Amino acid sequence: MMWRSSITRGRPRLFAMHERFADMNVGQATARIEKTRPEAPGADATAKFLELFAAHHQRILSYIFTLLPNEQDAQDVFQKVSLVLWKKFDAFDQDGDFMAWACGVAYYEVRNFLRVSARNRLQFCDELMERLADERSEREQDADRRLEILRECIKELPEGERKLLMQAYGEGRPIRELAEKQGKAPQTLYNRLNLIRRKLFHRVQSALAD
Question: For residues 105 and 85, is the Cβ–Cβ distance under 8 A?
Answer without folding.
Answer: yes
